[in-house]
Specification:
By secondary structure, this protein is mainly α. It contains four helices and no strands. 42% of the residues lie in helices and 0% in strands. Helix 2 crosses helix 3.
Amino acid sequence: MHALALGRTSKQIARALGVSDQTVRKHRENLMRKFNVHSAIQLIALSRGMDPDPDPDPDQSKGLGAGRGAGRGVPEPNLGN
């Protein structure tokens, strides 16, 4: 994990550990599946005790604010107002 967090490639990690880069990739895949994350960044965040999928708009969960799609051409849902 530490080497991954430092930005090392699978090949670099494999060389340092004396294993194949395919072994490193497979271990990373297994960890990602086990912890239900979809990227190495999320895996690193989880290992550091951080939320791997933080909400970019904390007010969104309270029904406040512009929402995730605001300003990106994503229409807001029509709530019948």
